[in-house]
Amino acid sequence: MIHLKQGDMFAQVGSVIASLMFVWAMFKQYFPYELRDRLEKYTQKAFTFVYPYIQITFHEFIGERLMRSEAYSAIETYLSSSSSMQAKRLKAEVVKNNQSLVLSMDDHEEVADEYKGVKLWWASGKNVFKSQTLSFYQITDEKRYYKLRFHKRHRDLIIGPYLNHVLKEGRALKVKNRQRKLYTNNGSYWSHVVFEHPATFKTLALEPEKKKEIIDDLITFSQAEEFYSRIGRAWKRGYLLYGPPGTGKSTMVAAMANLLNYDIYDLELTAVKDNTELRKLLIETSSKAIVVIEDIDCSLDLTGQRSKKKEEEKQGDDKEQKPKSPKEERDGKNSQVTLSGLLNFIDGLWSACGGERLIVFTTNFVEKLDPALIRKGRMDKHIELSYCSFEAFKVLADNYLRLESHHLFDKISALLKEAKMTPADVAEHLMPKTVPGNAEACLESLIEALETAKEEAKLKAEEAAREKESSSAKEEAKEADNKDPISEKEQ
Ligand SMILES: Nc1ncnc2c1ncn2[C@@H]1O[C@H](COP(=O)(O)OP(=O)(O)OP(=O)(O)O)[C@@H](O)[C@H]1O
Q1: Ligand 1 mean position, distance from CA 446 (Å)
Q2: pTM of the model
Q3: Does domain 183-302+334-384 have CATH number 3.40.50.300?
C-alpha cells in the first residue's frame, strides 16, 4: 500500500517536472546558443536525478517496410484484459466470427498495472503526420505507440521478467481470440477464408486407442518447443495419412487443426510453378499451422521419380521430350516442382522458419510414393485410415443417431468383419432421412447395404480364386510344353 502511494507521489513530481520541461522547450530559443546548450545538459541531468522514472516506448510500426510490431500487438492484447477494467475510453474489436468482443484502451489513455507488488503505468498515444497534399485533401498518417513508465529501482524486474510476461500473455490471448484461417495457394500467393470445419476427434470414427495415441502425439508436439530446441531440431512434425477414399483423412486434418487451434494451409502443389515458388510459399506460412498436401500421389509426378530416372539413365533414353497434352497441363504436369524441391520444403533449411508446424500428406496409394518422401524424420507418423470397424461404427451411431446400444448392433458388428465399407458410406446410411429421424430404419438400411457388400466381396473372392486356378493351370501346361523331349524319353 505504502509502495503504491509513493509511486503516485513520484508520478505527481514527474508531471510537474514534465511541465517545466515543456515551458523550457518554449522559451529556450530566447537564450544564447552556448548558454542554452549548457543549461540543457544540466537540466537533463537534474531531470534524471529528480525524476526517478524510466520510460520505454513501443511503436506500432518497425523497420523499413513498416511492419506492424509484434511486441506492440502483444502489448495491445495484454492491455485489453486489464485496460477494459480501468480505462474510461475503450476501442472495441469483434473477433471469432463475430462472436466475441475484445476491448482495448483508446488513444491517450493511461492504465496502471502491478507485477510482483510493483506498480507501473501504460499510456497509449499517437503521432499524426501530414504526409501529402492531394488536390484539396490533406493525407494524414497516424502512428500509435504505448509508453511504459516505472521506477528506476525496478529496472531489472520490469525489463526482464515483467516484459516477458506481458509478451507471453499477450501472444497467448491473441491465439485464443484469433479467428483461424484456411489458406490455399493461387500460384505463389496464399489467400484465405475463415476456417470453420466442425470436425473434432470426438466426432471422428476411429478405434479409441488409435485416437488416443494420435491426440497424445499432437499435444506432446505442441508443448515441445523446448525439447525441439534442446535436441537441435526444427519444431515441426510430419504426418502421413493413408487409406482408401472416404476413410476420414481430410476430416482428421480438420480435427487436428481444431484440437491444436492451428491454421490450415492447403497447398495445391500442381499450381506451384517451381521449387523457388514452393519455398516462397513455405516462408509465408505462419507458425501454429498445418501445411497439408492432399492426394500427394496425384499432385505431381513425384512417385518413384528417382527409380524412373535411374531406369531412363540405364536405357540411355535420349528421346526428345514429347509436348504435353492438355490433360497433362491441366493435371499440373507443367509444374517444375521436383522431388528434391519437395524434400527441401519438408526438412531443408527453410523449413525451420516459423516453427510449430505440422506437415501432412494424404494419399490413397501409399505404395506409389517415393520412400525418400515418407521416411521417418520427414513423415514421422504414418497413420492408416481404413474401412469402418465396429468401434468406429459406434462413434458414428452415437454422433448421427444418439445411440449407444441397439439390438441390431450385434448383427452390424458381425457384418462389418466380413464386408468392407468406408466410414463415409456407413455415415451416409446413418443420416436421418425423415423428420424426426428413425434410428431403426437407418440401421436396417445399413444392414442391407452391408449384406450386399458382403455378397459382392464373396463373389469377387470366388472370381479371384477361379482366375488364380486357371492361370496356374495355364502355367503348368506351359511348363509341360517346354519340357525337354529327350530327357523325357530317357525317363
Ligand atoms: N473416420 C471418419 N469419421 C467421421 N466421419 C467420416 C470418417 N471418414 C469419413 N467420414 C465422413 O465422410 C466424408 C468424407 O470423408 P473425408 O473427405 O475425410 O475422406 P478422405 O479419406 O479424405 O477421402 P479422399 O481420399 O477421397 O479425400 C466426410 O464428410 C465425413 O463426414
Answers
A1: 17
A2: 0.68
A3: yes
